[in-house]
Design goal:
It is built from 5 helices and no strands. The chain is mainly alpha-helical and 138 residues long.
Length: 138
């Protein structure tokens, strides 16, 4: 292979790598929505769902965002993918307790969430299901 062809292949490969890095490593502007975020209407909450909102804020918001709308480390839970007929309440319990292997989104696998009691998990589920219903996910 001629040296000019090798140089062209190397330059082309470096250009593709640089563009890939540019498009995948750009920082999100402060206050800008992430591509996977959804708009969430928060309805009045029952006592149990309100308790779940507090636990969600402590244990889940860092990844799944405020009001389960999606965050920098996790998908929105107010999304058709998580409707009860596809991800039953037990799936949420298992995800919190054991973690879950990545399968719908590109965030990587979810680790188990420590220090969340069974009663707190139930309240989180109540909160998420309330948000889902208010946003047309049944």
């Amino acid at each position: 292979m001629k040296a000019s062809h090798v140089a062209a292949v190397v330059i082309g490969g470096l250009t593709i790598a640089a563009l890939a890095w540019l498009f995948t490593s750009r920082e999100q502007a402060p206050g800008a929505a992430l591509a996977h975020q959804v708009n969430v209407t928060v309805p009045p909450l029952s006592e149990r769902a309100a308790a779940g909102a507090l636990v969600f804020e402590r244990a889940c918001t860092a990844c799944h965002g405020a009001n389960a709308a999606g965050g920098p480390g996790g998908p929105p839970l107010v999304h058709k993918i998580y409707e009860p007929s596809h991800h039953a309440d037990g799936a949420f319990v298992l995800a919190v307790r054991n973690g879950v292997r990545q399968h719908h989104w590109g965030f990587g696998s979810m680790p188990p969430v420590a220090d969340v009691s069974p009663a707190e998990i139930a309240s989180i589920i109540s909160y998420v299901r309330t948000l889902q219903r208010a946003n047309g996910i049944r």
